Predict the structure of Glutamine--tRNA ligase.
Amino acid sequence: MSAPEPAVPANDFIRDAIRRDNEQGTYGSRVQTRFPPEPNGYLHVGHAKAIVQNFGVAEDFDGVCNLRLDDTNPGTEETEYVDSIKDDIAWLGYTPGVTVHASDYFEQLYLWAEYLVEQGLAFVDDQDGETISAQKGGFGEPGTNSPFRDRPAAESLDLLRRMRAGEFPDGSRCLRAKINMAAENMWLRDPVMYRIRHARHHNTGDAWCIYPTYDWAHGQSDAIEGVTHSLCSLEFDAHRPLYDWFLEHLPLTGDRPRQMEFARLELTHTVTSKRRLKKLVEDGLVDGWDDARMPTLRGMRRRGYPAAAIRNFMLAIGTTRNNSVKAIEEFESFVRRELNQTAQRRMAVLRPLKLTLTNWPVDANGEPVVEYFEVTNNPERAEDGLRSMPFTGSLFIEQEDFAEVPPPKYFRLTLDREVRLRGAYFVKAHDVVKDEQGNVVEVLASYDPETRGGDAPDGRKVKSTMHWVSAPHALDATVALYERLFTTRIPGEATGEALDDLNPSSRELLTGCKVEPALAESAPGEVVQFERTGYFAVDPDQPMHFHRTVGLRDEWAAAQKKQGK
């Protein structure tokens, strides 16, 4: 297993516990973790926290982390999701020790289930799920024993074997552990271990018609694999007594794994419920699991979020047992910081307005002269060098960079005002061309040839520097601009349904954008900085289509500065 950036082990309660285990020789000072997603959807940013946690802990202690597909529910799991999970983990920069399936252990789990029946610690219940649920009782109210709880072990064993053989229909029987229906912990009230489900499984085919529940498969799979520290999100804290009970009552040949829980990741303006994400996809509210607005790793990848930024954010927020909601602006600050170091700078005009330099020279054939300027690819990395940009008397600038009647404190181009074209010349507008509706469609200006490179020999200054693209050399592009997918900080807080707060204006698609020629060489998925505009990712499937990753303004840093932090 490996990750791109080795890190000094952090100080948190999980790593401190592992250090104590190692000092005491627990597990022979061996550390093994696992990442166990259910393959019933695509991984999202919350899973990234668990990935970085499990793989990071193993790496810090020279251990190993396995990928285990927790595939105990054949009705919702698909090979498509299995493949996507493997790919997303690799993209984040991690390599599992081994990749396994919970279904690989179905035979051993079944044999252990028979053992518990023989020991009088499990029984077959003929009641339906609704009845069993009603008998569970509530907090402060003990449950009611099943009338089949004292069924002889031999009878339960016979019924269990007939369940496996496919003799009974779905839902007609189940296998339950015999623990304590009066336990304060609801998970200990004779939990279901197996249910009958005649369904084809993506990994085992039709070999089984009874399937283990998560709680029965989880700890036992850990034990089979040799997991030492089973790291789960905090909602499984209440499951831990059951996790331990099963392991205590089985004839294990190796060490018993230890479950520890940490707070999961929640982001503002974001939903990580698989059910709701799936509804967004199925109802056509987004373009798919990899829509750039989605909080899935596939969506973030398409949008241009660097894997390194995701890892660094997860490491920075640390590991605690306190659930909290992190500001998405903080997350985006890590994305912006990473891209500032790595992204190439490019010129792109999203809403073009033609700018014509009326005094631009022509050559001997009467053709406009073409000049070239050497422009820095990335001021943060000198090794990225320079690129050559063509410049002519026919240019495109942003519509918002010209105002015929400027508002107060407007420093960009207007009539009789001089501005700098980035890296090129000072220009001054002197007239406009309008269409029949009175809209400005072209600005006429003159340039000062003495200001080549963007500085005036006489030392005069301008208050604005604008980007541009040479019109004869410009390439056409489409650009997708994104706002928050959900309008409220905590989606669903007011109504109880997150999708009520879906933003109908979360994407704006711009066509007819004009970009510099160098962008034709950008690789699929590459992120570049459109100067003065933001960071944009090249779509992996559509050439010359760009997704805005984040803007240039660091909203998180600004908010922290305002608060004096």
